Amino acid sequence: MPVAMARHILVKTEAEAAALKKRIAAGEAFDVLAKKYSTCPSKKRGGDLGEVRPGQMVRAIDQIIFKKALKVVHGPVKSQFGYHLVQVFYRD
Question: Domains of the chain by range and CATH?
Answer without folding.
Answer: 4-91 (3.10.50.40)
